[in-house]
Specification:
Length: about 230
């Protein structure tokens, strides 16, 4: 899955974007909840992160975005903050990258999407992917000053687990892919909001962890898709 090509309106200053606010714009609007003095701050239009005893500066290049210069276009937003780490998303003319930053060393680890952290910051789930990925859900754990993939759910596995997504109904002729969003994380239970990729159907699911590993429950409710 991929973040879509940005329109010029969506790359205007936030005050001018209005109803044209896209993913980059919305991320910047939500950023305030993650900012913290001495850790991650907005200074003269730049995002400044203090990690590993140094300052990491993320400077937007909106002029390149407005001019359609894909190579240099960049808009940065702080998208997550957890004990020992935080995440910065770089929005480009097409697509985006997310960087996990270790606060002790300053090391940056590139991820395929935006992390949602557990309360202790030791694990995180990626459900909102911003680059090409074979998976639609991943669980990672922090290791040292980086991260390692612990569990993944491939796109193709969704059709094996949920026959209603195959495209064998009158309403769903060609097949649909489930899109996940984390709505809560308590202990070993991750709550999920699930929708079809056309956004026409919505339901809920869970991701549970036990001694055997992670288990996803995400099958669409019976009768959600009209039969032929």
């Amino acid at each position: 899955m991929r973040v879509w090509l940005f329109s010029i309106l969506s790359l205007l200053p936030l005050s001018a974007a209005g109803q044209s606010c896209n993913d980059a714009c919305m991320a910047r609007k939500a950023e305030a909840q993650w900012l913290k003095a001495g850790l991650a701050e907005r200074m003269d239009g730049r995002l400044v992160v203090t990690a590993g005893g140094r300052r990491l500066v993320f400077a937007d290049n909106r002029k390149a975005c407005d001019a359609g210069e894909a190579r240099d276009c960049a808009i940065y937003a702080l998208v997550a903050n957890a004990p020992g780490s935080l995440a910065v998303q770089k929005f480009e003319f097409e697509g985006s990258d997310t960087y996990l930053i270790d606060l002790r060393s300053g090391r940056k680890t590139e991820l395929d999407g935006v992390p949602v952290f557990s309360s202790d910051g030791r694990k995180f789930v990626i459900a909102a992917f911003s680059g090409d990925s074979e998976n639609n859900l991943e669980v990672w754990r922090r290791t040292g000053d980086g991260a390692a993939l612990e569990w993944a759910h491939p796109f193709r596995q969704s059709w094996t687990e949920d026959a209603a997504l195959h495209g064998d109904t009158l309403e769903n002729k060609w097949g649909l892919a489930p899109v996940f969003r984390v709505t809560g994380w308590q202990g070993d239970r991750v709550s999920l909001a699930i929708s079809t990729d056309d956004q026409r159907h919505n339901w809920t699911g869970t991701l549970l962890h036990d001694a055997q590993g992670w288990h996803l429950s995400a099958k669409s409710p019976p009768g959600m898709f009209a039969k032929r």
